[in-house]
Amino acid sequence: MTTLDSKKFAIDAVKLTKIYGSGNTEVVAMRDASMQVAQGEVVALLGPSGSGKSTFLTAVGLINPPTSGRITIKGQLVLDGETEHANLRSFRRQHIGFIFQKSNLIPFLSAVENIQIAMQLNGQSSGFARRRAIELMDYLGVADRADNFPSMLSGGQQQRVAVARALANHPSVILADEPTAALDGHRGRQVMELFAKVAHEQGTGVIVVTHDHRALDVFDTIYEMEDGLMHEQPKQSASSLDGAQSL
Amino acid sequence: MNLAMKDIRHNLGRFLLTAVGIGMLLMVVMGMGGIYRGVVEDATLLIDRVGADLWIVQRDTRGPFAELSRVPSNLVFRAATVPGVQLSREFVYHTVQRQRDGKPLRIAVLGLSWPTDKGEWVPLITGRPLGQSHYEMIADKSLGLGVGEQLELGKETYTVVGTTNNMISSGGDGIAFVTVADAQAIQFDVPGEAVRLERAAREARGEVFELAIQQPMMLNNAARPSGELPAVARPQISAVMVTLSPGADVNHVAETFSGWGDVSVFTADGQRELLLKGSVEKVRQQIGLFRVLLTVIAAIIMALILYTLTLDKIHSIALLKLIGAPNTVILGLILQQALILGVVGFGIAYLVGQQLFPMFPRRVILAESDLLQLAGIVLAISVLSSLLGIWKTMKVSPNEALT
Questions:
Q1: Torsion angle of alpha carbons B372, B373, B378, B380, nearest 10°?
Q2: In this predicted complex, what is the ipTM?
Q3: For chain B, which residues make up each domain, given as ranges?
């Protein structure tokens, strides 16, 4: 993968390092972490708590920029060390979709409005945004709950609405932080399969941080982080780990 | 998509309760302004309504409203002879307190210069002006007297022939209009026993008074009413009101009166100033300062409410930032809610105030200028108090949506 031109990658993160504090209080949360995700590829990021997974995700999500390293999204250099090459918030809005452990829908907006808002913030008209939101909800099987508020939806339905919101602006990459943690095994697998379906059908790169080893077969590539260091794992090895844990 | 309205729609009950709370607070501020305006209006009401150009009062006093003034009755004729004077009227004004139906009844008694002045200028809501020189009365509604009702004052009984609305003294007491003679009778009423004692005392003094011994008929005079005694002053009046002829120069006529050694003269504006800078000044200042204090407190409370409302939305705001919402969207959310809250609160204050203020014992006047001023203040408070919430939202990191 490293030989491919970066334009073909949904995201190309190179040697990302994140250091908190300085001097005696310095903590290296992530060191030289690199990951390349092709368009339409679904990547799992595994690792124990505190290993740096969320730090990596917030770094490539342009929420918490790394101390050093380079991030290229869909061929556009966004961050290079401390230099920002784009308005990060605007870039995030246009190119990155987020899904979290809890669905994180805005409580005072209905399901369809939660999806609409992402598009309207990106300059789409209200009418267009609503039509596309309904289409996405239909695609994800929750169209009948369009006018319900998040508090009226089940965990799985909320997560589907969150996925629809993440997809709304045709993002280059979707970042999901333990999206199935609040779901039972069956629902969790459904959500993981949904990511794979979206990635393959829409050409979106998907990075999923997960502790759930039961659905690793859904992913194209698996990375593991430990003590801030990232390693790509052979899929077979991860699957056997999955099997061992299942036992 | 208007996020502010969406949030309000979703939390309508809480928003309305908050708006009602702010509305009540603003109603107190509004009411305090209305009380302030009422005090000023009540204080100057008579001066404005009675339509006198000049007020002639006792020398070196600030009467008849700011302090007691006594001038002789014949001053009204002296004043009428001055060139430029169209009309001069007696003015008698004092407050009495009587019991009626077991409750204290305070009445500001105002004497009308019968027959020149029958009270045609008094804005009647029912009945008619005075129709005879004695025993009739025009009463303000606040006294609780209706046309045809009778009221005993002194030794006489007065019949209400007309009623007015909001004719109130600077002290907040309803005004009763009677003729000057009746006003004086009420003011100088003395119990029969006191009259008898005074006559006896006069006779006793006369018996040892050399002139009375030399002229015994003098003693006979002692038994007569004091008003009939020679060289004893008649009951005096509070002031003389002067209306000028069209085209007469008020300063020129006032200068003539100023030259008289026994009186002082004030223009209507001068009387207004005496009242506003005299008897009601401290009340005015006190209410004014209290109003300022209430406004500041309202601003602080509104700021804290808006800050709390913002804190409740911190997670949503972090999420909006995370999905790329520009700052203007988030500022709009906070600012619009602050303005909506302010406007709705103001509306509630106005509507509730309109129902409650008429029940207050003193007039609460919601002047248009005061309402506009308060509306401006509320808008300013809304904007300023939202700054605290905006400051908080600017500090929110998108990271907080992940926690």
A1: 120
A2: 0.78
A3: 3-42+280-402, 50-269
